[in-house]
Amino acid sequence: MSMQVSKKKAGDFQTCHDLIPGLPSELAIECLIRVPYQFQPAMKSVCRSWRTFISCSDSSFIQERRRCGKAELLLCLVQPLSPPIPASKPVVETLMVADENKSDGVSQPRVFCTPRFGLSVYNVAMSTWHRVAFPEGEQIPLFCECVVLKDAGKILLIGGWDPETLQPTRDVYVLEFSGRKWRRGAPMKESRSFFACASVGSMKVFVAGGHDDQKNALRSAEVYDVEKDEWSTIPPMTEGRDECQGFAIGTDQRFCVLSGYGTESQGRFRSDGEIYDPATTSWSKIENIWRFPDTSPRGRTAGDFRSSSRLWCFTDTELQMETEDDLRNWTLDLETIQLPMKTVSSDFARGRESEGEEGVMMKMTMGKKIGKWNDVHIPLDFSTLPFSHASIYV
Description:
By secondary structure, the protein is mainly beta. Helices cover 9% and strands 35% of the residues. A four-stranded antiparallel β-sheet has the order 5-4-1-24, with no helix packed on it.
């Protein structure tokens, strides 16, 4: 075993003395960071020094696991639980049912159950699934956005619908992966759902667009400083964009909002996007980047980790591309990748034969030039399609 922990890093954990009696702290740290993620909750119950070390608020434990190549990739999915629970305030939809003896229809109400959402985690290294417990008495907002701060070892659930009122919410929940504890974050300044969201830099999260409680497409945008637990308003986009997709792009860490549609053109997705530059606090438009006007970019797009100016679009055989003659204004390249099945969910594609059956998830592993799809088994309890997702090494 190579002892790579620096004297300074070992000194950072000096309060965790006697991690392993009889071993220098550097060597003890090297031992503990190699324990698989699934056993870390049990490790914290061994002694106070182990619990303190694993639950470091600055995520030093996770960073040390990454340094030695032992960090495990977790895919976090916000997805409906099955079966749905009865709604406290039922959603009623009026249907026109044809009467055999009359030419017109008869209005009849249909009551739906409110779905309940959970946060599921797939451990790629161990091929295991589990669901993260939420604080007692609270529920994960429906259709909330999932975003991670990789360096800080945190996952955030932002916005969505209140499970009781079914109205857009400002709520923010923060999960510390090291301590596996939830806390309430400062709420957004504006309620919104189906918006663009992305972490930019080490401790900032940007949100923009989506819609309000009247289904109006929003132009507004905000930034969350996770360390300060504060939201700040930034200049609005030039266009209202509902059901848009967010990315962090470039080495200078800019925020990209892709496609979406306006209030009066629901379902017709825009071909353009907008990029916010924190250095200049201004937006710039990118033209002709989304070429699928009948399809949402949400769940079908991902950033290419090998390039700061390229996006991937995952397509199936029914997704037809509309081409544009003038591509001179492009500042981002969009590369299409054929899915092995009709699915959704970015670089982790999902599918199943019918509702209620176990499914398969296809994971893309990228080589130097091309990628390869691999089967991943999905247990029945985790087979519902996710609304949002993010991945993190821990």
